[in-house]
Structures are given as structure tokens and as C-alpha cells.
Write a structure and sequence with these properties.
This is 17.6 kDa class II heat shock protein. The chain is of the alpha+beta class and 152 residues long. It is 17% helix and 31% strand. The longest helix has 15 residues.
């Protein structure tokens, strides 16, 4: 079996075709897939009150220091955190069953135009994060400008 064998020609042809194929550019990155899974697995409720928006997100097993609440450019509220597996303190212990969720938790919400992104507050209690975003006061209606008419 030399370099001129049909197997090498076929392999060379397949590798050339794969190098020319640009469809791999449409494959999502690993980070994108991981974030998409985290967003799908993080349940949330959104409520609108007369003067605020409230986002309620389940963040089980996380302390308040492990949770990040950010307002990104373009008015995007990003809530994230990561729950890691607990290290066993006793030697020789092994998991028999593991059902509790570990890994990244994340949600993104596009905030409306009337959201006050400078006054966002967050409170975490019993694994439930509540983020409040006040609404901006509606702009005052413009009063018509009265122009004094002078006699010439």
C-alpha cells in the first residue's frame, strides 16, 4: 500500500473538500452553546408594576456573593452565577445518585426604554433572586409656547 493507493486519494479528496467547506462558520461556539443551555435551564418570572419591573429568578444553592447582576450596553439586564460541585470532606465518599443541578445559571432580559438602569436593586433570599428596576417618570407634556405679538 503506497502513497498512490486509492485510499490515500480518497482521504486527500475528503480533506480538501472539508477545507473548502465554509459551512463550519455557521456552527455556534462552545461558549454560545453553554450560555444558551444555562439560559434555558434558569427559570424566571417577570412582573410589571405601575412604577417598576421585577425579575424573579431561581438561583438555587448560590450565595449572594456568587451572583452577578449587570446592566450591559443596549439596556440588557444580565443575571448570572455558577453552582459548583461540593468537595467531599470525608475520604472514600462517592456519589450514589446526583440529581441536584450544578453549573452555570444565566438569564438576559432586554429592558424597556422607560427602565431606570441607574437605580437597579437586587435581593437574594432562600435561593430566589429578586431584581427591581424602577420605571422612569414619564416626560412632562410640552406646553405650547406663547409668543407676544408687538404692534409695529
Amino acid at each position: 500500500m503506497g502513497i498512490d493507493s486509492p485510499i490515500f486519494h480518497a482521504l486527500h479528496h475528503v480533506l480538501d473538500a472539508a477545507a473548502d467547506d465554509k459551512s463550519s462558520a455557521n456552527i455556534p461556539s462552545g461558549a454560545y452553546v453553554r450560555d444558551a443551555k444555562a439560559m434555558a435551564a434558569t427559570p424566571a418570572d417577570v412582573k410589571e408594576y405601575p412604577n417598576s419591573y421585577v425579575f424573579i429568578v431561581d438561583m438555587p444553592g448560590l450565595k449572594s456573593g456568587d451572583i452577578k447582576v449587570q446592566v450591559e450596553d443596549d439596556r440588557v439586564l444580565l443575571i448570572s452565577g455558577e453552582r459548583k460541585r461540593e468537595e467531599e470532606k470525608k475520604a472514600g465518599a462517592k456519589y450514589v445518585r446526583m440529581e441536584r443541578r450544578i453549573g452555570k445559571l444565566m438569564r438576559k432580559f432586554v429592558l424597556p426604554e422607560n427602565a431606570d438602569t441607574e437605580a437597579v436593586s437586587a435581593v437574594c433570599q432562600d435561593g430566589v433572586l429578586t431584581v427591581s428596576v424602577p420605571k422612569l417618570a414619564p416626560p412632562e407634556p410640552k406646553k405650547p409656547k406663547t409668543i407676544e405679538v408687538k404692534i409695529a
